[in-house]
Amino acid sequence: MSNPQVIPFATTLHVKDTCLCLHAQRAARALARRFDAALKPFGLTNQQFSLMMALNRPEPPTIAPVASLLAMDRTTLTAALKPLERQGWVNVETDARDKRGRRLRLTDAGMAVLVAALPEWKRLHGEIEADLTAIDADSLRRGLLDISAPPKSGE
């Protein structure tokens, strides 16, 4: 019987302290909880708020650019739209230019919810930015955008 390989506990601690993925996941979960709590009185989750804001455009977008912006696959986006449709906040309509395509439109009720929720989002967002001590918010955003950018060809 062979001896299994063992990873030293020091390596576990090193991964815990340095893993960018772990730290990004922890931060994302903490932020999500804070925004979920702040947006709950408006009947929204942070994901729904971001999705509805992504639909706030001069012309209703198709699914692909919204999915890309939110880093979701089309199936996940379609599932996320269902409760918003049931609430009457979003309509999924046939694209007048391409009957196979769908356009995503905020309803008047959906816009009213966003208008009501936006001041609370701004308040909490400002509070979170003000609490950052190790890095300024613009540098953090740039770093996160760098990480989330599609890989360059050949990578």
Automatic annotation (TrEMBL):
Which residues are in the HTH marR-type domain? 17-149
Going by the UniProt record, its keywords in alphabetical order are: DNA-binding
Biological process according to GO: response to stress
In its UniProt record, a GO molecular function of this protein is:
DNA-binding transcription factor activity
Q: Report TM segments.
A: none
Claim: Nucleotide-binding is one of the keywords in the record: no
**Highest taxon of the source?**
Bacteria
What is the protein's name according to its record? Answer: DNA-binding MarR family transcriptional regulator
Q: Which organism is it from?
A: Allorhizobium borbori
